[in-house]
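Entry 12.
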Amino acid sequence: MQKAFLFLLLFFLPFSNVSTRTALPEKGTDTSVAASDGGMDGEALFEEMQLGGIVNFLAFRQAVQGYNKIEQKSKPILTLVDFTRPSTEERLFVFDMKEKKLLYTSVVSHGKNSGENYATSFSNEVGSYQSSLGFYLTGSTYQGKNGYSLLLDGLEKGINDRARERAIVVHGAAYANPSVAKSGRLGRSFGCPALPQAVTKPIINTIKGGSVLFIYANNKDYMAKSTILPARQPQELLSDARSTK
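Predicted 3D structure (tokens):
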């Protein structure tokens, strides 16, 4: 009887071991499929690029989500403008998504009717002189009254799709130079993301011609209307706790 019991025990043990080992590859397979099908993972990129303490985690994750979804892009460059930060701080970030590198950081102006040091009000209306949130594609460059400038196409209907009509472009301006921020805030635009003159040309040359630009503000009205981003969880709207991870 004892021999029969030992035989049965030895017979079933290998099957138990095989079952335990195959559980892990199944999990790994799911992860690889999700990565190849859904694009880059914002959280993994945030860690790999060592952006903690530099970039707002929630803003970056949303930017990557939109970048993955926007099929019209033609170059692997992503620009994030984070309006949860004051104008006195660097809040424009340019990423090379292929090389996984942060290329530029800079202060950037918001619209004169969007707020003082912080941008808190946003509009898609002509003559509002407010910034517009959401995702854009960069276009071609031109020489205008503000010098070297970059056209933007808003991709979100009712949120920023009147960018061309409103002449919302990336350009340089003396009022956007960091020295102006000593007064308590950066100078403000008519709604354009205006840059310091010293970095205007290199940044525009990097992002021009079909890259993604995202203007973020942790704004629940934007999230309710956005057709590019999925609905966020309530706790994400209440806290940017991961922004300095």
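Annotation: The chain has a mean pLDDT of 85. Residues 95 and 102 are 5 Å apart (CA to CA).
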